[in-house]
Amino acid sequence: MTKIDAKIPSGALKDKWTKHKNNINLVNPANKRLIDVIVVGTGLAGGSAAATLAELGYNVKAFAFQDSPRRAHSIAAQGGINAAKNYQGDGDSIYRLFYDTVKGGDYRSREANVYRLAEVSANIIDQCVAQGVPFARDYGGLLDNRSFGGVLVSRTFYAKGQTGQQLLLGAYSAMNRQISRGKIKMYNRHEMLDVVIVDGKARGIIARDLVTGKVERHSAHAVVVGSGGYGNIFFLSTNAMGSNGSAAWKIHKKGAYFANPCFTQIHPTCIPVAGELQAKLTLMSESLRNDGRIWVPKNMDDVKAIRAGKLKPTQIKEEDRDYYLERRYPAFGNLVPRDVASRAAKERCDAGYGVNQTGQAVYLDFASAIERYGKETAHVQGLDENDKALVTKLGKGVIENKYGNLFQMYEKIVDENPYETPMMIFPAVHYTMGGIWVDYNLMTTIPGLYAIGEANFSDHGANRLGASALMQGLADGYFVLPYTIGDYLSNDIRTGPISTDHKAFEEAEKEVIDRLEHLINNKGTTSVDTFHRKLGLIMWNKCGMARNKEGLTSAIEEIKALREEFWKDVRVPGGRFEFNEELAKAGRVADYLELGELFAKDALLREESCGGHFREESQSEEGEAKRDDENFKYVAMWEYTGNPADAILHKEDLVYENIELKTRSYK
């Protein structure tokens, strides 16, 4: 197998990033004005990168398929953002954040990248505070922290349950400053449909104006893709329905290696599926597990009575409840990592203890927290701690201050008051750790083409710890890419403007138009959503929370057959030169039908369990994930050769010099 140079600097781990910044080439301010950079995607990663690159002096062209950058899916992030500031004085440090992240990812991420992430995390908080992000503060006015799964410290900064929205508004304001200066040219309602390679380098993109349907050529000296993940390949996920993996898949087909596609995160606290016609799932922030206790009834008779509507969960006695995470993982309890919590919920539901009509739900209960906070508040105020009604009222007030908007969202969707009755939750697809392979500089295998945020694979291994997505996106955009891209662009100061008249632009544009015309003129009988839903069922049933050889082998064949059927029978109404969301959706689903096969192929090859990738053939006697470090301690890098079935595997061996490889234990 080919071994790829990840360009990891030599020297001690704690010195690598500093040494690297000191040694890479720079572009002086006057020359930055001569260089164009395209940024695809304007969420936290793309938005922060566009703003920072423009602030440095580069000419930035930013592309968003939404009507505004502030509509990026980053806005939906709820719980918080990690940073190693140790404000709580509970033992946190850069090393501990680094260690927790590598361990949480089940030892399938690069040490150097993760340490750099932990190192710059503190800078992110300072940057966002300076932008006016309204992080929660404690009584003394200092920034507050809470804990998330997989850690024993409180390092998560938050703004109620809308942290992503507030952080995105910070990046958006920074972008707006540069837009008004003319340093960012914003292309809203534009979707990237291909990357253009000139003489081996990324020199532009082909984009479609989603309002007019016009296909356009855009050139630059470098292209940055920050277009998010591919969780919507499962159809039902917590992602916005417009979120897609097309930009990443397009650059993969042009030569960027795709890494670890099977590493997908299942989030344990989502509102359960309500019916067959549902098209979107809603996340309930992991922060709720700080105060909510997860349980199912111990007795099957109680389960049956609850499903029949004859018994309420509040009527079940404490001794008749199975707080299964606290039982199985006493050291971490309800704050085990997401993959562990998700599999534990699945195990209880598979055993028949699910509490909703479908049997696919468990309880997240705040009664204990309401009582605890109520008594504490009553004590502080000198009130009667034995007045149950008063304690409940005060406790609900504390919970409302911490999680109010999340409780309100739950009640609007489920029509139940979570202050009075436990929430019902079940795991759902949330985040993708796999993505475009990048080196230490965040460059793909195509020179001049970068991938940042969830679009790349680099920092989370086989499982992402909660509150680390926002950390990685902003780290890449604000503090990593602006340094490393200069090392490449320093060779372009005499290049001059890139012409869109080059043959490579013409060929790429023709490919895009031919594909669009084919979809419009196919005149099939089946809707795009029908194919997407069928793909999602295959993915969830055979590539979801548990995977096995038989199911994955079957999934590959089923996806192939579905893809063939799609190109024969898909129906796309409307025309090409108009606002046509079905046409845009068709292109994205076509990409998913290729990516899905590679996903299953990658999962089939990785005959171990690690993080979110759970192979039923590889588990301990207790049902825990069982890694195989001897044979699978590598990043799987897939090279496109014309068909997912023929993709070529390359390996980047993972070297651990600062962390001892252990079997993960949260007990």
TrEMBL record:
Which residues does UniProt mark as catalytic? 338 (proton acceptor)
The record's annotation in NCBIfam families points to: PRK07573.1, sdhA_Bsu
Q: Where in the cell is it found?
A: Cell membrane
Q: List the PANTHER family.
A: SUCCINATE DEHYDROGENASE 2 FLAVOPROTEIN SUBUNIT, SUCCINATE DEHYDROGENASE FLAVOPROTEIN SUBUNIT
GO terms in the biological process aspect are: anaerobic respiration
Q: Classify the protein's membrane topology as the record does.
A: Peripheral membrane protein
Gene from which this protein is expressed: sdhA
Q: Reaction catalysed? A: a quinone + succinate = fumarate + a quinol
Tell me where on the tree of life, at the top rank, the source sits.
Bacteria
Protein name, entry field: succinate dehydrogenase
This protein's species is: Brumimicrobium salinarum
Similarity field: Belongs to the FAD-dependent oxidoreductase 2 family. FRD/SDH subfamily.
Q: Fumarate reductase/succinate dehydrogenase flavoprotein-like C-terminal domain: from which residue to which, for each copy? A: 532-666
